[in-house]
Amino acid sequence: MLDFKKGNGLIPAIVQDYKSGEVLMLAYMNEEAWNKTIETREAHFWSRSRNELWHKGGTSGHVQKIKEIRIDCDNDTILLKVHQIGGAACHTGYRTCFHKRLEDGGHISICSDKVFDPEKVYKK
């Protein structure tokens, strides 16, 4: 059903809060991550930086419980509507990975508060 060939085995997965519609993050899935997501009803992705399967929240406890899955018209992008456990999707401690806003003049500002301290959660 999904066309993993177009993106060299990876397809983008947009993650959205199922109640508010807020976009939480963008990640990539390979076929293994897709199958694991379907099997567990929790978000799994392919980490391009670590080159491994990644269970979202596996370390932090901030898992994403799947409420609905949508697939685009070309079968090469996924939209996951999730219940975000722990209140934060971003590994840097913010609710959403999209916590930076481009202001007039090109200045970037942080437009939300941190939900958790990543140094405590990930023991860095």
| Estimated share of beta-strand residues | 25-35%
General shape: globular
- The CATH superfamily of the domain at 11-87 appears as Phosphoribosyl-AMP cyclohydrolase
- Major beta sheet, strand line-up: 2-1-6-5
**Helices and strands, in N-to-C order?**
EEHEEEEEEH
Helix content: 10-25%
The CA-CA distance between the termini, in Å, is 40 Å
C-alpha-based Rg, rounded:
15 Å
Number of helices: 2
Q: What CATH architecture of the domain at 11-87 would you give?
A: Roll
Low-confidence stretches: none
Annotated CATH topology of the domain at 11-87: Ubiquitin-like (UB roll)
Mean pLDDT: 96
Q: Can you count the beta strands?
A: 8
If you had to describe this structure to a student in words, what would you say it looks like?
The chain is mainly β. The protein has a domain at 11-87: Roll (Ubiquitin-like (UB roll)), CATH 3.10.20. The protein has 2 helices and 8 strands. Strands 2-1-6-5 form a 4-stranded mixed β-sheet. A two-stranded antiparallel ribbon has the order 3-4. A two-stranded antiparallel ribbon has the order 7-8. The termini are far apart. The mean pLDDT is 96.
Features:
Ubiquitin-like (UB roll); mainly beta; single chain; 35% strand; 4-stranded mixed β-sheet; 124 residues; 2 helices
Describe the secondary-structure layout.
Blueprint lengths: L10 E7 L5 E7 L1 H10 L3 E4 L4 E4 L8 E8 L6 E7 L15 E3 L5 E3 L7 H5 L2
Parallel strand pairs: 1-6
Antiparallel strand pairs: 1-2, 3-4, 5-6, 7-8
